[in-house]
Amino acid sequence: MTNTQLTLVQIDNYGPWTVTPDPRREMDLQTLQSRLFADLAQFVGSRDGYVFFTRFDNMVAVTNGLDREDHKLLQESIANRYPVTLSLGIGTDRNPAVALERATDHVQRAGSAQDGDRREVLSGDTLAEADRSSSDVQIAHFDVNDATGKYTDRLNEFDTFIHIEQGYASLMRYLREEHGALSFFVGGDNIIAVTPDLTTEQYRAAIDHVEAEADVELKVGVGTASNAHEAGFAAKHALEDCRHLGTTVEFADASVEPTTD
Known about the structure:
The chain has eight helices and ten strands. The protein is of the alpha+beta class. A five-stranded mixed β-sheet has the order 2-3-1-4-5. Helix 6 packs across helix 7. The chain has two domains: 4-132, Nucleotide cyclase, GGDEF domain (Alpha-Beta Plaits, 2-Layer Sandwich), CATH 3.30.70; 137-251, Reverse transcriptase/Diguanylate cyclase domain (Alpha-Beta Plaits, 2-Layer Sandwich). The longest helix is centred in the middle third of the chain and has 23 residues, at 157-179. The chain has helices at 14-17, 26-45, 68-81, 96-109, 147-152, 157-179, 200-214, 228-245, and strands at 4-11, 50-52, 58-62, 86-93, 122-123, 137-144, 182-185, 190-195, 218-225, 249-251. The two termini are 27 Å apart.
């Protein structure tokens, strides 16, 4: 049974900072945001977690395996190297959406995202080691069937982007509303979802919904483990099984071992 630990990462007072004392150059802001995300991904990823950029000023991390000291170290590292600070809220639940609601509540109770006096909040409890298991995190890795042949090699980039994003929006909404799963676009034609325990039939229903609503065909590999890296690595192998077998849903073989890279 899943028990997902999620961390909301929120840049403190970011909106006002971007226009103080004057509006900052847009590409400078984009550079800061992309570098900050890269550093977060490296920090959390080195501890077997995942981070998703969502809106960049607010990011979501799957942090099973990270404790409060890890979160404090992340805040300290960013404060030492960036002109902005981070507030972190931690939530846990079998349902990822509920875990995120709890993480968000911790940060919101400490003050507004644009409160100049609210800095480096760290609130919420991580999973105790005794409460962790090998089935805490389920990761579903979706991609678009033959995206290169249907879109990339036939359409201009913006029209391709529209098709991919429409499929993502349909999947994101369906999984959130039906199952409390959280889906994130991660580039190319790939979507990674953090889900509760879902069955093959439930994944097929999601894929059928996206095809009917957005006319985008998907397949998915699913992995389960104690942390996001191992679950996600297993999901990648299951997705390769879909490609080789011509199937739409595959669960990872329990024997798949993640790399240590």
